[in-house]
Write a sequence for this structure.
């Protein structure tokens, strides 16, 4: 009996140890890219024998990268804005509204996140030609907006489910019109989630490749697409530098959303939820 | 009755159908229309509406691709489950704050572009990459392993990318398992092994199902990783891309895409059913 | 102490007529009519799912009725949107706005009514003094105790001097001692303001303490309305008899009216009953435990029997006996211990009985 206990303890500790190792291993690929971006060599080899910022300088001076970054930000912010407006309003309708077919509606809102993007991409290509959007910013912006609706939708649904609709009824019983209720009660309560939905949608758009392959022209080429083309063409540590920049930007975005959400959760301890 | 419903819709915060308008303007033309378009186009052909599907299911090359796509997805799902289950178990039972950090660690790579993550694996798995080098240095290997271009590297990278989709639903389900079940089993005479196998595992199955379906669905449609690490063997997404953009055979590409769409929709339906069953069957105490 | 808000001109009279709510095919509220007098305190009690909160929701305006009317001081309110009804409501779990401070919560209705800032500040100050929460004015509701939150909810619902206050299980989240304390506070509050209150609870003691009239709901229907005393002493149904307090209920097998009215119950036991009660007719007789006398007190009563004490339970303040008659009927008796009081042990054979006036004939 006593031996059995020791055996279990060992097993438990080893499973726990392996888990921790695995969690750290999740970060190894990212670390390797960061290290590689600091290489002083002109070809890819790991680990680098000498370190410098030369590939960052070259990346920053590269006009292809410059325009790709500007394109990615333009497309990302616009798409995330549209997705956030649309996703937030649907979430309010689904959680608080009296509309038929809520289940079907939320499934439809989730579907773009599930469908392989290649399917959407080959379906959207002829449509963008038909609407003469092909090669314009709008082609990618609208496609990204449609596909990233699930992020704000899920975030805002969560926030609305996090507090009772009695809070809104209370505001109305106290004399607030529907518009005042939205402005003074609903919006402050879901604000942090709207923001994090926006950030997640932005992060999605900035990382998205497949739709960008089909819907961009050389003038609207995004950063992931440029990286992709470079990977298929010539591989230098400059890619690692660009990847590190993209990685840092995305993680900062996610971090900001996390902090805002954490902060607002502490601020409003919802009573009796 | 109907009159009252209308009255209700026009009042208060409730039921303003206009709330759906912006989403409809995005989802209908840029999600529903392309899906319908693909399905429509897949039934076009010179010899009849099912010409493309005859090709899809008769052409040995395409059948091989379909089979390989299923094989890879199944293997990735299996490995992810075997790795993800103990990880989720450990993380679930850590103190709250440490668990939050672990979940953040699991999710962190998820937010990094698939292109970048695949690129990292290209480096790691290279013939003279860090993995081979360190295994050689320790002496486990006498000569470098060939990991790229034969599917092994692709599966490894896909497992890495899919881990969050498996672990998060598992953790969510495991969190709802009341520890008193385990204590009850213990006091009824179950040893730790039986406690886990007979009590914990069955209760955590819905999470494992949900995670597995998610990983499987998303693996079916993988594009970036198979393109960069897959070598000569082709997965469905790559085939669709080749047919559409290189060979300009849109009807065949559409038929392949429809097959993927139907499979995904069917799996998603199962996913919804599993989740609903888990929610109603005392999963939430 | 209640000067802060000032006496409300007059509580309003509420007339509920044939109010109905169907969620097809479920009837949440069957056609219900209730009158609440101006300044009255009306409590609605019933088990969960009996439709009491739905009824309150219709009055407040967040549930739309299928049919019926609600008049406040003679004016139909159902066509008004919620925010123009000027009704105060204390919600279940209070529904305080978690992102606003206590003061901001209380000021909210005044701001919505477009009051001047100085006026708002002054009224909020008075209101906070009234509920003794001055030092918490800048706290968020999440940092208050349950009782404090309850007081904020009350202050917020009353600051705009509504003539009708709705309360949905306002004390449900509090523990026993605090609940007793808050009951007193609510009663004083209502009496000093002269406001009309409609109060939903599942706690019959709370209802009896607070209300001057009570309506009992079951399966969406109001089964009986009356003063607490009427409901307890003259229940009209088995449900009400069992829901309010304890009762021994027996099925009637024979009933004879007239001046010598009597009823025979299952097992053949026969008893004299009040002719007026017999005239109403019914399926059961119901006898309250404190009306069942034991020993010498029973001997002089017209209905007297002999039975065995099968259970004797001494609790704080009262003794509860279960007596079993030879034919098998089992009934409950309650006595108040006092000086020189005799406690009967289990197993003892005793005389027991009750007055014909204490037998209710119910359905």
């Amino acid at each position: 009996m006593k031996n059995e206990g020791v055996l279990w303890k060992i097993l438990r500790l080893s499973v726990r140890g392996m888990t921790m190792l695995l969690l750290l291993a999740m970060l190894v690929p990212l670390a390797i890219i960061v290290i590689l971006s600091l290489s002083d060599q002109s070809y890819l080899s790991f680990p680098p024998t000498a370190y410098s910022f030369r590939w960052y300088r070259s990346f920053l001076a590269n006009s292809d990268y410059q325009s790709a970054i500007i394109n990615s930000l333009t497309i990302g912010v616009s798409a995330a804005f549209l997705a956030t407006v649309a996703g937030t309003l649907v979430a309010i309708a689904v959680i608080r509204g009296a509309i038929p077919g809520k289940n079907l509606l939320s499934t439809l809102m989730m579907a773009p996140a599930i469908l392989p993007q290649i399917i959407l991409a080959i379906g959207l290509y002829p449509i963008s030609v038909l609407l003469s959007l092909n090669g314009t910013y709008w082609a990618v912006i609208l496609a990204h907006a449609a596909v990233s609706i699930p992020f704000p939708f899920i975030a805002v649904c969560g926030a609305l489910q996090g507090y009772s609709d009695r809070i809104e009824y209370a505001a109305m019983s106290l004399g607030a019109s529907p518009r005042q209720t939205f402005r003074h009660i609903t919006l402050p309560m879901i604000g942090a989630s709207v923001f994090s939905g926006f950030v997640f949608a932005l992060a999605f758009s900035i990382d998205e490749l497949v739709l960008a392959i089909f819907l961009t022209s050389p003038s609207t080429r995004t950063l992931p697409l440029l990286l992709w083309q470079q990977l298929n063409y010539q591989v230098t540590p400059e890619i690692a530098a660009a990847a590190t920049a993209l990685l840092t930007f995305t993680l900062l975005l996610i971090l900001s959303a996390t902090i805002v959400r954490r902060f607002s959760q502490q601020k409003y301890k919802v009573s009796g939820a | 009755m109907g009159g009252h419903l209308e009255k209700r819709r026009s009042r208060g915060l409730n039921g303003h159908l206009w709330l759906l308008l912006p989403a409809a303007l995005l989802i209908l033309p840029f999600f529903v229309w392309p899906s319908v378009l693909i399905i429509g186009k897949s039934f076009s052909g010179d010899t009849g509406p099912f010409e493309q599907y005859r090709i899809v299911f008769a052409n040995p090359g395409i059948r091989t691709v379909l089979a390989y796509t299923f094989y890879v997805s199944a293997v990735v799902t299996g490995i992810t489950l075997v790795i993800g289950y103990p990880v989720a178990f450990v993380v679930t039972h850590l103190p709250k704050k440490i668990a939050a950090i672990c979940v953040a660690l699991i999710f962190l790579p998820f937010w990094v572009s698939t292109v970048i993550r695949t690129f990292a694996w290209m480096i790691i798995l290279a013939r003279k990459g860090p993995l081979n080098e360190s295994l050689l240095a320790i002496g486990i290997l006498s000569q470098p392993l060939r990991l790229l271009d034969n599917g092994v590297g692709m599966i490894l990278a896909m497992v890495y990318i899919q881990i969050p989709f498996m672990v998060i639903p598992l953790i969510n389900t495991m969190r709802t398992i009341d520890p008193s079940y385990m204590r009850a089993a213990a006091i009824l005479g179950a040893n730790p092994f039986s406690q886990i196998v007979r009590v914990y595992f069955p209760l955590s199955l819905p999470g494992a199902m949900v995670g597995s379906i998610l990983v499987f669905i998303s693996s079916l449609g993988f594009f970036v990783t198979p393109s960069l690490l897959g070598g000569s063997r082709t997965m469905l997404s790559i085939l669709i891309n080749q047919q559409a953009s290189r060979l300009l055979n849109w009807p065949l590409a559409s038929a392949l895409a429809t097959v993927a769409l139907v499979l995904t929709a069917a799996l998603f339906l199962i996913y919804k059913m599993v989740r609903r069953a888990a929610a109603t069957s005392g999963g939430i105490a | 102490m209640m000067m802060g808000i000032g006496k409300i001109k007059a509580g309003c009279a509420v007339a509920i007529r044939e109010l109905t709510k169907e969620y097809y095919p479920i009837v949440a509220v069957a056609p219900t009519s209730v009158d609440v007098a101006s300044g009255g305190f009306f409590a609605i009690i019933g088990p969960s799912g009996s439709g009491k909160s739905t009824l309150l929701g219709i009055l407040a305006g967040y549930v739309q009725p299928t049919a019926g009317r609600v008049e406040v001081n003679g004016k139909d309110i159902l066509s008004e949107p919620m925010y123009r009804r000027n009704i105060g409501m204390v919600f279940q779990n209070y529904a305080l706005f978690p992102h606003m401070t206590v003061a901001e919560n209380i000021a909210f209705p005044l701001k919505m009514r477009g009051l001047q800032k100085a006026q708002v500040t002054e009224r909020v100050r008075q209101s906070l003094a009234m509920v003794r929460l001055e030092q918490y004015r800048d706290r968020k509701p999440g940092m208050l105790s349950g009782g404090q939150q309850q007081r904020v909810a009350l202050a917020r619902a009353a600051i705009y001097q509504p003539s009708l206050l709705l309360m949905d299980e306002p004390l449900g989240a509090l523990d026993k001692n605090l609940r007793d304390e808050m009951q007193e506070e609510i009663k004083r509050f209502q009496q000093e303001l002269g406001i009309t209150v409609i109060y939903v609870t599942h706690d019959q003691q709370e209802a009896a303490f607070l209300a001057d009239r009570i309506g009992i709901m079951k399966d969406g229907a109001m089964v009986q309305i009356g003063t607490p005393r009427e409901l307890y002493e003259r229940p009209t149904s088995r449900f009400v008899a069992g829901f309010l307090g304890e009762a021994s209920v027996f099925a009637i097998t024979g009933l004879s009216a007239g001046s010598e009215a009597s009823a025979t119950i299952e097992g053949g036991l026969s008893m004299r009953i009040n002719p007026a009660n017999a005239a109403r007719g019914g399926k059961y007789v119901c006898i309250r435990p404190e009306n069942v006398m034991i020993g010498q007190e029973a001997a002089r009563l017209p209905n007297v029997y002999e039975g065995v004490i099968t259970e004797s339970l001494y609790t704080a303040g009262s003794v509860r006996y279960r007596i079993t008659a030879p034919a098998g009927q089992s009934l409950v008796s309650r006595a108040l211990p006092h000086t020189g009081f005799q406690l009967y042990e289990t197993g003892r054979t005793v005389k027991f009985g009750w007055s014909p006036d204490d037998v209710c004939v119910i359905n």
